[in-house]
Amino acid sequence: MFKVGDRVVYPMHGAGTIEGVEEREILGKHHRYYVLRLPIGDMKVMIPVDNTEDIGLRDVISPEEVDKVIEVLKQECTAMSSNWNRRYRSNLEKIKSGDIYEVADVVRNLSAREREKGLSTGERKMLDSAKEILISEIILAKNWDREKTVSVLENVLAQEAQG
């Protein structure tokens, strides 16, 4: 059970802060919802308290774990299917998992592919989305501002390009 003020990650959407717990009546039944404020796009989402495990809602990683995420970004690319559809589905599953290391893997691999061969519109959107998810969690884990977080991420990815 999370509480107001907790920093959590909502898979596919990114990290945010629980601002409240509200009760709503839907189809005659009362349900409790976490009100989650996502800094990206200043979005507010309501997540059913009873479904948090199914959804994959989890705590934001620790500041020390951010260093491990950066190490994942520095690693060699993992093998990706040459078939666009298979590659897209595989990357989508990694992002949906809510695992920050899997998201970092997607960012690293798609960034490398973008430099080498370019990306389709779908994969470009996926890369942008995965970066935003990564950025949102690092911001909350390290208490950095967006500018610093983006700068660190871009520097790591640029080093890999030269690497």
Protein described:
52% of the residues lie in helices and 21% in strands. The protein is α+β, with helices and mostly antiparallel strands. The chain folds into two domains: 7-59, Thrombin, subunit H, CATH 2.40.10.170; 63-162, Methane Monooxygenase Hydroxylase, Chain G, domain 1 (Up-down Bundle), CATH 1.20.58.1290. A five-stranded antiparallel beta sheet has the order 4-3-2-1-5. Helix 4 (100-116) packs across helix 5.
What layout of secondary structure does this protein have?
Layout: E1 7-10, E2 14-26, E3 29-38, E4 43-48, H1 52-55, E5 58-59, H2 63-74, H3 84-96, H4 100-116, H5 121-142, H6 146-162
Helix pairs in contact: 2-4, 3-5, 4-5, 5-6
Pattern of helices and strands: EEEEHEHHHHH
The biggest beta sheet reads: 5 strands, antiparallel
What's the Cα radius of gyration?
Answer: 17 Å
CATH topology tier name of the largest domain: Methane Monooxygenase Hydroxylase, Chain G, domain 1
In short:
The protein is 52% helix and 21% strand.
Descriptors for this entry?
5-stranded antiparallel beta sheet, Thrombin, subunit H, alpha+beta, 163 residues, globular, Methane Monooxygenase Hydroxylase, Chain G, domain 1
